Amino acid sequence: MAAAIELIDLTKMYGARRGLAGLSMTVRVGEVFGFLGPNGAGKTTTIRLLLDLIRPTSGTVRVLGRAARRDAIEVHRRVGYLPGDFAVDGRQRAGECLAFLAALRGGVPADRIRELADRFDLDLRARIKSLSKGNRQKVGLVQAFMHDPELLILDEPTSGLDPLVQQTFLDLVGEAKRAGRTVFMSSHIMSEVEAVADRVAIVRDGRLVALDTVADLRDRSFLRVAIGFAGPAPAAEFAALPGVTDLAVDGSTMSFRLDSSPDSVVKAAARHTVTSLRTETQDLEDLFHTFYTGGGDTAAADR
Ligand SMILES: Nc1ncnc2c1ncn2[C@@H]1O[C@H](COP(=O)(O)OP(=O)(O)OP(=O)(O)O)[C@@H](O)[C@H]1O
């Protein structure tokens, strides 16, 4: 079985409102997959469809080789799920809540719960309602990981966690991956997933706008170059150079985007008197912002 998750032309309408519009993508067994997008992009809708908590308007959802709807009981047994709005009875103590959820799963060794609670520095004796948002999120994370599921589906798992706890979470994701598990996690923020994700998908307005490895996304970064000249900026000469686009002139300063080797730009500049030179790399976060706001290259989404 090569696919942990397979979505084919998945559409979800909420009345006249569109939650998802023809989303197709595959998550491979054993990969950590980041699912990113701005507010309202369709991330939670997708995750709820995976768990059969809501039903698609059209399209197919397969999880661990099973139909999300017909085989929902089996899918739920094999999956660890952290909802975006993890909510449990606040009067319970954290330990009681986890023991109850573990019993529903057919039992989890108490040592395993204690080990995870220790790693997250979670007080199992505290009543849930007395816990801060971040500490409640830890309860949600422990219940998702405790039975060592084949597939973890995590909706904004790092929400409310401080950087130290985030690191503990990332360590657990790494361990799950090394044990051959699959992790599907949503987030708003690239930097949260780029350290652990093998591939990331970016959704916007219910559609896939990019799907690639973190490394390949990074390779799409480019330079912004600004050169000041002693005389008039030689715009025509630079516009003709390989990899130069988006050229603008402001007095004797010229700026442009450079997508290829800087060699020809440096050699062309050397024929003039250069008074200033500035370069900035567009990093993954900038690229991500381009996708968020509607620009970017959508060709990768077809992969
Ligand atoms: N129960 C609902 N009824 C009506 N519209 C809904 C419902 N749930 C989601 N939507 C709409 O579907 C679209 C996708 O929402 P969804 O919650 O899946 O986005 P998201 O990517 O998870 O956003 P966020 O990052 O804000 O959690 C939005 O336009 C949202 O308003």
TrEMBL record:
Pfam families: ABC_tran. Signal peptide: none annotated. InterPro entries: AAA+_ATPase (IPR003593), ABC_transporter-like_ATP-bd (IPR003439), ABC_transporter-like_CS (IPR017871), P-loop_NTPase (IPR027417). Residues 5-230 form the ABC transporter domain. Keywords: ATP-binding, Nucleotide-binding, Transport. GO terms for molecular function: ATP binding; ATP hydrolysis activity. The keyword ATP-binding applies. Gene3D superfamilies: P-loop containing nucleotide triphosphate hydrolases. PROSITE patterns: ABC_TRANSPORTER_1, ABC_TRANSPORTER_2. Belongs to the ABC transporter superfamily. This is ABC transporter. It comes from Phytohabitans flavus. The lineage of its organism: Bacteria, Bacillati, Actinomycetota, Actinomycetes, Micromonosporales.
